[in-house]
Model the fold of this input.
Amino acid sequence: MIDKQLIATDLLNLCIIDENNTGDINDWVCCQAHEESTDAVPLTAEQISQIETEYATQLADYNAKQYQRDRQYPSIGEQLDMQYWDAVNGTTTWKDAIAQVKADNPKPQE
Amino acid sequence: MAITINGSGTITGVSAGGLPDGCVDNDTLSSTLDLSSKTLTIPTDTTGLPAGTVVKVTNMDYTSRQTLPGAGKGVIATMGTFTKDSSTSSIYVIGGIQGHWGPCSEVGVYCSIDDSDPANDDDSFKGSYMFHAHDGDYSTYNTPYLKPIQIHNRFTGLSTGSHTVRIGWRHGTLASTRPFGVVNPTRQSDLSGIQTPATRITVFEVED
Done:
């Protein structure tokens, strides 16, 4: 999940307030950190454009790595156990298990 | 004026203080008091109230989802105002600030009363800082750790009349940090399962 409001804060270095908790950027107001929240003013069109551009960039990067988050590998302990018994028995259980997770969640083609 | 015993059973003509002491004694008073058809008016004069009496309770909520920059110090919100009635009372402020997402290395969150620039550490009517360190992975935005912070302060010496309560944060060396990224996380925007999207401060005026 990419938080557009946090992105806006880090991009502009301002407090961003969603006064009515709508999530709509057009409703947001901003102020300097040292100012009163009651002194906040609406975002300008230029600021909104900046935020939307940065958000789209980060969202695309986030979505492109979805396959990594979907890969549920066995725990480190389980993997070490697999490797031990593979070494003892000459099997490929660990390598097969990892390959299966990768195969089930392939990296999207560029 | 002559004393008259009326046919209705009332007596007129008795001046104030004209009845002897003990005319209505303890045995005459009812053991119960039925005020069901009466309006009880509490005197506004706080003089003489015993210590520990709660004079007034004022509640203040801040519900907007707000994000904070890593500015080292700042105002989070002007919570509201309360009116102090007694010149000899103390003000106790109790509350909680709901937030999530770091980083937040040992930054203090505080409340202040009548401090026009509470981000500066130069005002006597400022509560003590409540420190906390980050409590988890904050490397991405996708870390919805709920971080409630307690406010618990006592203010003395305030005059009667209206006063303004604010909350803010400050790092000891003004390092670029914040107590959390999001104040008042909401169910729509954040992943936490149990959320109270309200920072609440309760102000107690208590007679000393």
About this structure: Residues 135-143 of chain B have pLDDT under 50 and may be disordered. The two ends of chain B are 48 Å apart (CA to CA).
